[in-house]
Design goal:
about 25% strand; Rossmann fold; seven-stranded mixed β-sheet; binds magnesium ion; alpha/beta; nucleotide-binding; single chain; binds adenosine-5'-diphosphate; 4 helices
Length: about 150
């Protein structure tokens, strides 16, 4: 299992990396974002949205759980922090099987409801504005995606 790692030195750099990744995304792609509060999950998602040509401002969907944006591909932005202990069926499947790209902040909290193949991205807060970013592709689609980005 190959992991990919990089370091960013500013929010702009994290956003720029996400934008670059967005260029390689396809309908149905799923990205799980993990990291503590303030690690940069939403910052990453904002950059990814730019890369998908989404004009609207992307904000943390903490209180709405799921927000949908129109772009080159639709973006389904989820923050499941607050649904952690709820077994409520929020219809996630419809998004995972949809024509857009799904980004899930705090994805491990709905682990049982996630597809097995996805790209997990871990963000770690280092000193100041430094972040360590680790990409963990599961399944052939995401292994290919990482190869394209890091080639
Ligand atoms: P999360 O969604 O993980 O809680 P946010 O993206 O909302 O995190 O917040 C990250 C905060 O850290 C923002 O205020 C952002 O400007 C700041 N930040 C500083 N350095 C970085 C970096 N290298 N990458 C991403 N965010 C950074
Ligand atoms: Mg967030």
């Amino acid at each position: 299992m190959t992991q990919y790692e990089l370091k960013t030195m500013s929010p702009e750099e994290t956003s720029q990396f996400a934008k670059r990744l967005a260029d390689h995304l396809q309908p149905g792609d799923i990205i799980a974002l993990e990291g503590d509060l303030g690690a940069g999950k939403t910052t990453f998602t904002k950059g990814l949205a730019k890369g998908l040509d989404i004009k609207r401002t992307v904000n943390s969907p903490t209180f709405t759980i799921i927000k949908e944006y129109k772009g080159r591909l639709p973006l389904y932005h989820m923050d499941v922090y607050r649904v952690a202990d709820s077994l409520e069926d929020l219809g996630f499947d419809e998004y995972f099987e949809g024509n857009g790209v799904t980004v899930v902040e705090w994805a491990h909290l709905i682990k049982e409801q996630l597809p097995s193949d996805l790209l997990t991205i871990y963000l770690y807060h280092k000193e100041g504005e430094q972040r360590k970013i680790i990409l963990n592709p599961i399944g052939p689609r995401y292994e290919q995606l990482c190869k394209e980005i890091f080639q």
